[in-house]
Amino acid sequence: MHVGFRKGGKIMEEKQIKEMIDLAIRQMDYSYAPYSHFHVGAVLLAKNGTYYTGCNIENAAYTPTNCAERTAFFKAVSEGMRDFQAICIVGGKDGVPTEYAAPCGVCRQVMMEFCDPETFQIILAVSREKYDIFTLKELLPFGFGPDNLKKLK
Which pLDDT score, from 0 to 100, does residue 47 have? Predict the structure, then answer.
């Protein structure tokens, strides 16, 4: 378990990390997961201190399903927010977190669009006591983002 953050990012206080975990766990209650029964909650922290929450929303056609992480990001971006510090993700079968629920590739790519991979923190949690913090770069080491397109000019 990491307390705070490493590699040059802004240090998060343990109190704030636990607050994010609690909020992400509560978001699992809003999850719509009638097919997988895997409920996910997320809370995204903007650099201005605002929280944006999300849950997974499944669809019988599968492709239109939206992950909790993207729900939180799209809510934030749709309200004009573009600067993010961290996200906390909690998930588990039948709404019971038992292991880390890491973001899928599509969610990692969305994070890459809006976040600095060196400093953006991803908190994967099972409970207030069991969590770990990663940078986006650790979870997406050779990510393709907006900066790659700027280099092409």
Answer: 96
Q: What is the largest CA-CA distance in the chain?
A: 48
Nearest to 30 by CA among 71, 77, 79: 71
Active-site residue identified among 13, 69, 99, 113: 69
Look up residue 146 and give its amino acid: P
Tens of pLDDT, residue by residue over 71-130, are 999 999 999 999 999 999 999 999 999 999 999 999 999 999 999 999 999 999 999 999
Nearest by Cα to 67 from 34, 89, 98, 100 = 89
70 forms bridges with which residues in the sheet?
none
69 a catalytic residue: yes
